[in-house]
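Model it.
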Amino acid sequence: MFKMFNFQEFISAFFVLFAIIDAIGSIPVFINLRKRGKNISASRASLLAFLIFLIFFYGGEAFLRLFGVDLSSFAIAGSLIIFLIAIELILDIEIFKDQPESPKDATFVPVVFPLIAGAGALTTLLSIRSQFADINVLLAILCNIICVYFILKAAKRLEKILKPGVIIIFQKFFGIILLAISVKLFTSSLTHLIKTFN
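Modeled.
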């Protein structure tokens, strides 16, 4: 398997996934969740995201087919969740309201899904798997998860260092970036879905 390692393929897969996961762009979301009293475990989030990527890498399409869901529909659903998170950041409103019984832990939702191992990242994973050797994609996933771990750790420190005004500006800016990502994911997936029906 390691004989198929190709540095150029690895770098390409790494940067494609890094851009789609966009953990740096999600830092304001992590800070906002902490401000709302939510707990985020960097190690658990990284491990869960890695497991989801691995499961989806080997059985993603089969799993979706089991529920009669195609990749485009899955991506559209994920884009709508990212859209709502972006609206929360930009307009400073609370769409995902906490109920008394709501868990205080936000590690899995929304940090692991849809922010890290979201629909965009998972569909991208399946598309690059068809282009590159498995070992190169798997190493790219591992390196991205390591980056995610350190970014989540840094978010906690940034919350203490940055002034509230700076955090608000940061949130608005990356909220717009997240909004753009959600719109792009939605339109490209919808276009693909329409072409499939036609």
